[in-house]
């Protein structure tokens, strides 16, 4: 009888220990985001890059880190895409290039270089002369925050880059 009680105790202890291990592992947190990272969501409209008949088609999207916004803001689509301006080359670094289809959603995480002050987005629209194909977004650094919250971790920023039929929108999301 005593031997049976020991076996029952061992089974009960084993079940309790397994339950504790499962409970502790269920409480683990999601992987931490890199400090200062950007969570980027590319969201393409279903009507992007219309042709003469109004049919949507994929577009090429490029994202750049900018050390200064001056040369980028003064450049047109062809100067940026062909990298023909030496000053622009020293101020920009391409960090993403890809094609996006109408209605597609793409997510990525970027960690800008410490000397980057802004992101630049360039979209290769078919009707480039009537499109708003270049957009910048200033990177907010920890040092720009109020003095009383600088000691808090910087965390990550979430951005939504909307690729509309003939324009780009960039907004910060929660």
From TrEMBL:
Assigned keywords, A-Z: Lipoprotein
InterPro entries: T6SS_SciN, Type_VI_SciN-like_sf
Signal peptide from the UniProt entry: none
Protein name per UniProt: Type VI secretion system lipoprotein TssJ
Gene of this entry: tssJ
Species per Swiss-Prot/TrEMBL record: Siccibacter turicensis
């Amino acid at each position: 009888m005593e031997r049976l009680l020991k076996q029952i105790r061992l089974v009960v202890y084993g079940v309790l220990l397994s339950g504790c291990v499962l409970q502790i592992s269920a409480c683990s947190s999601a992987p931490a985001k890199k400090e200062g990272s950007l969570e980027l969501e590319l969201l393409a409209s279903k009507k992007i890059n219309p042709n003469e008949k109004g049919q949507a088609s994929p577009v090429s999207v490029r994202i750049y880190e900018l050390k200064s916004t001056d040369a980028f803001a003064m450049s047109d689509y062809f100067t940026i895409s062909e990298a023909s301006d030496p000053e622009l080359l020293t101020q920009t670094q391409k960090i993403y290039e890809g094609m996006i289809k109408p209605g597609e959603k793409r997510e990525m995480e970027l960690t800008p270089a410490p000397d980057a002050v802004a992101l630049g987005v360039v979209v290769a629209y078919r009707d480039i002369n009537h499109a708003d194909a270049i957009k910048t977004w200033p990177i907010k650094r920890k040092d720009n925050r109020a003095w009383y919250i600088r000691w808090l971790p910087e965390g990550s920023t979430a951005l939504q880059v909307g690729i509309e039929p003939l324009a780009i929108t960039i907004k910060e999301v929660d």
